[in-house]
Design goal:
The complex is a heterodimer of chains A (about 240) and B (about 350). Chain A is about 35% helix and about 30% strand. In chain A, the strands form 2 sheets. Chain A has a 6-stranded mixed β-sheet with strand order 6-7-8-3-9-10, with helices on both faces. A 4-stranded antiparallel β-sheet of chain A has the order 2-1-4-5, with helices on one face. The longest helix of chain A has 18 residues. With about 350 residues, chain B is mostly helical. Chain B has a domain of about 210 residues. Helices cover about 75% and strands about 0% of the residues of chain B. Chain B contains 16 helices and no strands. In chain B, helix 4 packs across helix 14, helix 9 runs antiparallel to helix 12 and helix 13 crosses helix 14. Chain B is globular, with a radius of gyration of 21 Å. Chain B starts with a helix and ends with a helix. Classes of the chains: A alpha/beta (about 240), B mainly alpha (about 350). The interface between A and B is medium-sized, with 30 and 28 residues.
Chain lengths: ~240, ~350
């Protein structure tokens, strides 16, 4: 998918973790506006920590994070969100005792994504708008988590394993929605995903993390075609 | 800017959001019936109107705790401080010449609210057991101060010589509780309406969001710490109003108003009624105060034993409180009805 080359996220020599424990070691990468970058790696290598560090939820230790040209590594999470960083976490974290509509309204900021547009993106949510979020299926909760992140009108969306644990049909629905987000709102996406074939087939570039270090970076199509490399880096059968 | 401000600003300009919040704020039939019945109690023959005004005041007090605990998830063991401060401020005003009750009530709310704001700022980073300890500690400090400052507060005897002028310069407080009932009812109703409007808006949703997942609210652009002090301020002002109402309708202010026992009682009332539902406090107050009155008349010596036993039974059968249990039953019946008979 086309992107305009303007760098929206620039991560430089980033060290971060939890308290004194260091998880990320000198991580460096950039993401251009409209681009979709996939972060791959085995379990426990720091993929989620990377997203949480961009959001401001971990302990920053060294390095820089520039978002739209501004240093954000010392900013509070809510300020980063207001600058345009949205996050859909792995655990979904919907507000269980609020309805679908209330989950969206609680952070609704208008902009590119009206409530109607969010329902167009995820029609299942429209049908269940008055239901409590706790009563939704896993796939619907995932849709709600992404829709809620979009409701705050982000320029950069961080998706943490959006299709993990979902039925194949729901995965297709989710992938279609992600593609539509990019096409309609020129959204920049950084996605962590363990289903590498799905992630690589729909993204522009990928980076591979191992023990908190980027060990490989390549265009997604190239990576998808190199089965031997995939096997070596991710431990998947070629 | 706090989470609630952020949410308010966020939703305000958009039609979809406005329509939604308008529908959320619409009154339901049972709500109108509830208030109409409460007002209608005045006309029941042989009703103790002073007792009913006490029920309303406790309901307002429990509703104030609901803003903190039910909506924002902040537990407090010292909520009586705000009630007591409101009561003593209204008492001091009445004692030293400012006898007009409505302005006195507003001033008491203002002082209690300001104290709540300070308290909220102090505890906005404290959570869980720490929060319980801090609020309990504050309660004990203020209670001890009031009890020992005999010259200022009257100590154990309470504040003496409080004079309250007739409401609107016309309705004099009498021993039958006629004015007390309507004064308490109107004040509680107006404050309820205002609180309901606040909680059925983006402000209320942001409070619930922060209660359920503060970390998530942070990453959605809402600085949740600011909401703690706001919630404390609102809850304290409401509790202050309840305290001022009690002082003005009884013309007394006693140190028991801000005792730990009162903090515990209001918590029990809210839990009986059901937290996080606004009406839970009022339902709990109706049950608790009427039960207390009835049982203490039946068994003047052991009445607290019976109250305790009844509370254990109520909470055992209605774990989430009376109102949520009734709601649950209603939802179950409705879904069974809509499902129809098995084919």
């Amino acid at each position: 998918m086309a992107h305009d080359g303007e760098i929206i996220l620039d991560v430089r020599k980033l060290d971060a973790g939890y308290g004194a424990a260091k998880v990320l070691h000198g991580v460096e990468f950039t993401v251009s506006r409209g681009e979709m970058l996939v972060v791959l790696g085995r379990n426990g290598v720091g993929k989620t920590t990377l997203l949480e560090t961009i959001c401001g939820l971990t302990t920053w230790q060294a390095g820089e994070i520039l978002f739209k040209g501004q240093n954000i590594e010392r900013l509070a999470p809510y300020r980063r969100n207001r600058m345009g960083i949205g996050w859909s976490p792995q655990e979904r974290e919907v507000f269980p005792s609020l309805s679908v509509q209330e989950n969206l309204a609680v952070v609704y900021r208008g902009g590119k994504w009206t409530i109607d547009k969010l329902y167009d993106l995820f029609p299942r949510l429209r049908a269940r708008r008055d239901n409590y979020a706790r009563l939704l299926s896993g796939g619907e909760q995932q849709m709600l988590a992404i829709a809620r992140a979009l409701a705050s009108d982000p320029d950069l969306l961080l998706l943490d394993e959006p299709v993990e644990g979902l039925a194949p049909l729901v995965v297709q629905e989710m992938v279609a929605a992600i593609n539509r987000m990019r096409a309609e709102a020129a959204l920049t996406i950084v996605m962590v995903e363990t289903k590498h074939e799905v992630a690589l087939a729909h993204s522009d570039r990928c980076i591979v993390l191992d023990h908190g270090v980027i060990v490989h970076a390549a265009p997604s199509a190239e990576m998808l075609a190199d089965h031997a490399l995939l096997d070596r880096l991710l431990g998947v059968a070629a | 800017m706090s989470a609630t401000e952020a949410a308010s600003q966020a939703a305000a300009p958009h039609e979809a959001g406005r329509d939604y919040f308008a529908s959320l704020a619409r009154w339901k039939v049972w709500e109108i019936l509830f208030w109409a019945t409460l007002a209608g109690c005045y006309f029941f023959p042989d009703i103790d109107r002073m007792l009913m005004s006490r029920v309303i005041i406790w309901g307002l007090f429990a509703m104030s705790l609901d803003v903190l605990l039910g909506y924002r998830g902040i537990p407090s063991l010292g909520h009586a401080v705000f009630f007591g401060v409101g009561a003593y401020v209204a008492g001091f005003l009445g004692k030293f010449g400012w006898t007009e009750p409505i302005s006195g009530l507003f001033f008491a709310m203002f002082v209690a609210g300001a104290l709540g704001l300070v308290m909220g700022k102090l505890v906005q980073r404290v959570t869980g057991v720490g929060l319980l300890m801090v609020t309990l500690g504050l309660n004990l400090i203020v209670f001890d101060f009031v009890l020992r400052s005999t010259e200022l507060t009257g100590g154990d005897d309470g504040l003496q010589g409080i004079v309250i002028a007739p409401v609107l310069n016309y309705f004099r407080f009498d021993i039958w509780g006629r004015t007390a009932f309507w004064y308490a009812f109107v004040v509680a109703f107006v404050l309820f309406v205002v609180t309901r409007m606040l909680l059925k808006s983006p402000f209320g949703l942001a409070l619930i969001g922060a209660r359920e997942n503060p970390r998530r609210m942070l990453t959605l652009g809402a600085p949740v710490e600011g909401d703690v002090s706001r919630a404390f301020m609102i809850a304290a002002a409401l509790a202050g109003a309840a305290g001022a109402l009690l002082t003005q309708t009884t013309q007394t202010a006693a140190p028991t108003y801000l005792s730990f026992q009162r903090s515990a009682d209001v918590l029990v009332i809210l839990i009986i009624g059901g937290a996080g539902r606004l009406y839970g406090g009022f339902i709990g107050a109706i049950v608790f105060i009427l039960l207390q009155d009835y049982v203490s008349a039946l068994s003047p010596v052991y009445w607290y034993f019976w109250i305790g036993l009844l509370l254990v039974i109520i909470v055992s059968f209605f774990r989430k409180g009376l109102l949520p249990s009734v709601e649950q039953l209603y939802d179950r019946l409705r879904s069974r009805k809509s499902a129809g008979p098995p084919g």
